[in-house]
Amino acid sequence: MKRTAAAILALLMALGLCSCGGQRAESCDFFAMDTSMRLMLYGDDAALFEDTQAEIGRIENAFSRTIDTSLVSRLNRGETVTDAELADLLTSCITYTDLTDGAFDVTIAPVVLAWGFTTEHHRVPDAETLQELLQSVGRAHLHLSANDPKVSSSVDTVALDKGSSIDLGGVAKGYASDRVAALWKEQGVKSGLAALGGNIYCCGCKPDGSKWNIAVRDPFDGSAYIGTLALEDAFAVTSGGYERYFEENGKIYHHIIDPATGYPAESGLASVTIVSDSGSVCDILSTACYVLGAERAEAVWRSIGGFEMVIVTDDGHILITEGLEKDFDASSAAHDYDYEILR
Ligand code: AMP
Ligand code: MG
Question: Which residue from 93, 113, 257, 292 has its CB within 8 A of the most atoms of ligand 1, so it is best to mutate?
């Protein structure tokens, strides 16, 4: 089940789309990468909608595992693929696999497929099947190399062990938001907003000089928020089990898989929102921290730094890292939660 469209709508209602600082906001809605997207730009910058959409389409065509001709599909069919952009993205994925103790791992693909999240034919796989599939999961099955070391030592070539495959569902939208940011910066955009599903990019600040207000969804109530984040030139990404799930025999199974078990992560969290200056890092870490749970996510925050987060636990506690203390405003929350600052 997909709730992303509703979440974006809620977010945009919270943003209050109107004229700002004397300039009219233009917005553009479309569906890409299996989710609803909205771009917002001001004045002449709105001419960039087409190029922005084209760039997102290019990324989808390269990195989707359900498009037959994509680089990822070729790789998953056993081809060795030479493509510097894919190799770079996978290099950073592997870095974070190591930094998160394997919680984020793109080689989780065969397990995600077995649960039916790739095709939306959901089912609960049996324990033996999962154990068998987990043999093909792990970053050791993903091989990165330089195609022609005589010409360049840069890593640009990717191959997988037989039986292994990759799924970039946990990073591709964040990466797309990085590409949107690069395009807008290159074109001199000072103010804009891209909401690619739950992946938000705030370009600069609003034309009147104030920060963007990004609503953080209440994971227990799709029509409410737990608060808003005031952000400027930043990315914010939320992961939560409520985004995609199915129910069988009264039990909910969601789409974020713990690579240690092969089952949907049960780490005591309802959602994790990450804020940083990189869309792909936000996307990777929101998925990883959701798998890790509050304590281990906090340990990652303390050890690697460079990002901030808002964690909502299953029992309704909200943990906010200190870098967001001033920018988090809980006054729009519809329900009572206890908020704790992690210092
Ligand atoms: P997100 O919504 O960014 O948290 O990403 C969830 C998506 O990433 C899932 O729908 C899967 O396609 C994929 N995925 C699930 N579990 C993991 C994991 N542990 N590491 C990397 N990708 C995952
Ligand atoms: Mg993610």
Answer: 257
